[in-house]
Design brief:
The N terminus is likely disordered. By secondary structure, this protein is an all-alpha fold. Helices cover 73% and strands 0% of the residues. It has a domain of 156 residues: Alpha Horseshoe (Serine Threonine Protein Phosphatase 5, Tetratricopeptide repeat), CATH 1.25.40. This is Tetratricopeptide repeat protein. InterPro entries: TPR-like_helical_dom_sf, TPR_rpt.
Length: 473
C-alpha cells in the first residue's frame, strides 16, 4: 500500500512539473510585445539557463534575443542583473532601452520593468521598504505562473523584507501554492540553512534534486549545506556531482577548492583555483574570490613568499578593490606586519559583508601584537558567545587563532573549553598542540596517530599533518 501511495505521489509530481513547463512555454501573445519568434525562443532559453544558474549561457541567449528584437524589453532586465562588473558589458545602454515604457509593451512587461527600475534606483534604500515588498507580493499573485519572474523578483523581495522569519513564512506560503517551483524551493532551503534548521534545508534541497536531477545547481546547494556543517566528505561528493553535470560551474569549483584545503588536499585545491582563474566570461567576484582562497591556501602551507607575490601581482579593477584586502590581511598576518594588517582591517569596514567576515578573525592577533590584550580578551569572549552562529570553517578559523593566543600564555584550561565546538579531527589537532606545549611526548604521539588516521590522504605539507609527523619523530 505504501509503495502504491509513493508511486501515485511521484506521478502527481511529474504531472505538476509537465503542467508547470507547459504554462511557461505556451504562447501567450498578451504577455510579450515581441512578434519575433527567434527573439522569444532565445529569451526562453535564457530564462531556462537562468533558472539553472548557468550565467554565461544565459547571457549569450539574452544577447541573441536582443539582437533579434532590440525593442523586446525583458532580455535587458536579465542582462543588467547578470552583467555587473563584466568587461564589455553594455549596462548603460541596456538601461536606456527600458527607461521609458513603449506603447506596444504588454502590461506584464511594463510592470516587471517598472519594479526592476524602482529597485535599481533605490537599491540601498530598499531595505525595510514594506510598500515595495507589498508591490512585489501583488505582482507575484498576479503573475505567479510566470517562472521567469522569480530569479529577478525574489532577490529584490529578500532585500526589501530583510527579516529571515518573515521571508520563511512567505516562501512557505508560496511553496504550498507552487510546490514544484524550484526557485522558491532553493531559496527556502538557504533560509532554513541560515536559521540552522539543517534537516528542513536538506529536505528542500533533496526535493530540488528530485525535480531537476540533471541540473548542477541543486547538488551545489545541498553541498553548501554540508559545507556549512563541516561535513566536507559529503560536500565534496555533491560539488563533484555538480561539476560532472556542468564542469565549469564556478561556485562548485570555488567551494570544492575550499573543501580540499580543509581536508589537506592542497595540490587538488590549487588545481581547482587555477581552473577558475582560466574560466572566461564568468562572474567577477568568483574570479577574485579564487585569489583570496589562494592566499588562504598559501597561508596554511606557510608559503609567505607566495602570498607576497599574490599581494603584489593581484590588482583588481577599482570597483573590486575590496577583494585585495583579504590578501593584504593574510600577508600582513604571515609576516607579522601590524601596519599592513591594521590598514586592511580598517579599509575592509567599507567593503561588503563577506569581505569583512574573511578578515575579521585577524583582529584578535592584531590587538595582541599592539599590546591591547584586554581588548583582545573582550573580543574573544564576544566571539565565543556567538560561535555557534558561524559556519564551521569560520568557527575553526576563530578557534585556532584563539587557541594560539592561549597556548602562548599556557592557559590550557581555556583551550579545553573550546574543544566542544569542534569535530573529532579538529579536537585532536588542538589536543596535540597542548600536549606539545606541555612537553607531553606520549600524549603528543597519541594525538599525532589520530590525526594521521584522519588525514592519511592529505598532502605532506598540510599544517595538521606536518605537526603530527613532528610529534612522531
Amino acid at each position: 500500500m505504501k509503495r502504491v501511495f509513493l508511486i501515485v505521489n511521484v506521478i502527481i509530481l511529474i504531472l505538476i512539473s509537465a503542467i508547470w513547463g507547459m504554462r511557461f512555454f505556451s504562447e501567450k501573445e498578451n504577455l510579450y510585445s515581441t512578434k519575433n519568434k527567434e527573439a522569444l525562443k532565445h529569451y526562453k532559453a535564457g530564462v531556462n539557463y537562468t533558472m539553472m544558474y548557468y550565467v554565461p549561457e544565459a547571457r549569450k541567449e539574452f544577447a541573441l534575443a536582443i539582437k533579434k528584437d532590440p525593442n523586446f524589453p525583458l532580455p535587458y532586465i536579465f542582462q543588467i542583473m547578470m552583467s555587473r562588473g563584466l568587461k564589455g558589458s553594455n549596462i548603460p545602454d541596456y538601461y536606456k532601452k527600458i527607461a521609458v515604457p513603449q506603447k506596444n509593451w504588454t502590461e506584464f512587461e511594463k510592470e516587471f520593468t517598472s519594479i526592476f527600475l524602482e529597485y535599481t534606483a533605490k537599491r540601498e534604500k530598499i531595505k525595510g521598504d514594506r510598500k515595495f515588498a507589498k508591490r512585489i507580493e501583488n505582482f507575484i499573485d498576479k503573475y505567479a505562473d510566470r517562472i521567469e519572474i522569480y530569479p529577478i523578483i525574489l532577490p529584490m523581495y529578500q532585500t526589501a523584507i530583510g527579516d529571515t522569519n518573515k521571508l520563511i513564512k512567505y516562501y512557505e506560503y508560496l511553496h504550498e501554492k507552487f510546490p514544484n517551483n524550484t526557485q522558491i524551493i532553493n531559496r527556502l532551503g538557504y533560509l532554513y540553512l541560515q536559521k540552522k534548521e539543517y534537516k528542513k534545508a536538506e529536505n528542500a534541497f533533496k526535493k530540488y534534486i528530485f525535480i531537476e536531477p540533471d541540473n548542477a545547481n541543486p547538488y551545489d546547494s545541498i553541498a553548501d549545506l554540508y559545507y556549512t556543517q563541516g561535513n566536507y566528505k559529503k560536500a565534496i561528493e555533491n560539488y563533484q556531482k555538480a561539476l560532472s553535470i556542468k564542469p565549469d560551474f564556478p561556485n562548485s569549483k570555488i567551494k570544492l577548492a575550499l573543501c580540499y584545503i580543509f581536508t589537506g588536499k592542497l595540490k587538488l585545491a590549487e588545481k581547482k583555483l587555477n581552473e577558475i582563474l582560466e574560466l572566461k566570461n564568468t562572474i567577477p567576484y568568483l574570479t577574485f574570490s579564487a585569489y583570496n582562497i589562494k592566499a588562504i591556501l598559501y597561508l596554511l602551507e606557510g608559503e609567505t613568499e607566495k602570498i607576497k607575490e599574490l599581494y603584489q601581482s593581484f590588482n583588481p579593477p577599482k570597483d573590486y578593490f575590496c577583494f585585495k584586502l583579504p590578501i593584504q590581511a593574510f600577508y600582513g598576518y604571515s609576516i607579522k606586519d601590524k601596519n599592513l594588517l591594521s590598514k586592511a582591517i580598517e579599509n575592509s569596514e567599507k567593503c561588503p559583508h563577506f569581505i569583512r567576515q574573511l578578515i575579521a578573525p585577524l583582529k584578535i592577533p592584531l590587538l595582541i601584537w599592539l599590546g591591547k590584550e584586554n581588548q583582545a580578551e573582550k573580543l574573544i569572549q564576544s566571539i565565543l558567545q556567538k560561535i555557534n552562529d558561524l559556519t564551521y570553517d569560520r568557527k575553526v578559523f576563530y578557534i585556532n587563532l584563539i587557541a594560539d593566543y592561549y597556548l602562548e600564555k599556557k592557559e590550557y584550561s581555556k583551550i579545553e573549553k573550546l574543544l566542544p565546538y569542534l569535530n573529532e579531527k579538529d579536537k585532536a589537532y588542538l589536543e596535540l598542540l597542548m600536549a606539545k606545549s606541555q612537553n607531553n611526548k606520549e600524549k603528543c604521539k597519541e594525538f599525532a596517530k589520530k590525526l594521521l588516521q584522519y588525514y592519511n590522504e592529505a598532502d605532506e605539507n598540510f599544517y595538521k599533518k606536518k605537526e603530527a609527523l613532528k610529534c612522531l619523530k
